[in-house]
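Below sits our specimen:

——
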Amino acid sequence: MQINRGAAEKSSTIDFSAKVRLAANLSIPQAWGLAVQRHPAGFEAIKYVSRFVDQPCLALFDRGGLQSKLRVTELGALSDLDTPVDWLHERKAALE
């Protein structure tokens, strides 16, 4: 997991062991996320690898002005994307 302070400050990251994100007890990674969100440094995001699809993810914290830094890109229906469809298929699940 990497934590990004944002563009306003000199960009910095903190790396966490996979043990944090893969802990069986979800209270551990949730506690880290909450601590980062509340930290006075004002981190804007956490970049991490999903435990479900082993792909990079980004958790954004709404710090004033975040909306103006983002743009929306339509990807289409979730059921049309390979990664979620494969994930559901492997788990014998379906979208309704």
In short: The CA atoms of residues 64 and 89 lie 39 Å apart. The chain has a mean pLDDT of 76.
